[in-house]
Amino acid sequence: MKKIFKACLIACSLASIPVLSSFSVNAAQTQQADPYVLFENVTQQAFDRFQTEWPKVQDDPERLKTIIREELLPYVDYEYAAFKVLGKHVRDIKSEDRQAFVDAFKDYIVTVYAQLFKQYKETQKIVVEQTRGLNGDKIVVVKSRIVEPGRPDISVIFKLIYRNDKWGAFDMEAEGISMLNTKRKEIGAAIDRVGIKAIIDDLNDKAAQKIKINQKEPNND
Description:
Elements: H1 2-13, H2 25-31, H3 35-59, H4 63-71, H5 78-86, H6 95-117, E1 125-128, E2 139-147, E3 154-163, E4 166-174, E5 177-178, H7 179-194, H8 196-207
Antiparallel strand pairs: 1-2, 2-3, 3-4, 4-5
Helix pairs in contact: 1-7, 3-4, 4-6, 5-6, 5-7, 6-8, 7-8
Pfam family, one: MlaC
Protein name: ABC transporter substrate-binding protein
Signal peptide: 1-27
């Protein structure tokens, strides 16, 4: 399972980025004060929904995109992540192209996460490390582990930023791979060669890809 997850992450990161449903308004506002508590609750709720709806997902894998949009995307700062990916180029791009890139990147994130979580097993759970003090930090690192009986834990690290009065994930690192850094290098190498519109078209094409689950996929590492 660990090798399958890593292979999928590498494949996604070569074209990708990073994480995170829906509490009541009051609960969400309370949890925004502590990103660790927020993250623990959001990811647990997402995994609970994976488990509850997995038989339906196996019949209709595209349902994974719906779960990601509803359970994870509201807690992803995809705009900040998109601008980080563009890096130095962000100021040279027309405002309408920047917005088109952000929109395409948002949809792309949904597909990337759906591709990653199609490896989910009903015996898995996620464990978030214990909360520590914030000390006024605006960027925090949240460490978590995907645990499955009889298999090595998968370490997943999320980076969150406090922006616009809320916390949002902008990067994910698994097996030592930062999807933000990988995508930034890819975009940086391509943008001068093909232009921003071609990159936006490519993101939209990848976002539209259908999710497929191989029912006979082996579970061996």
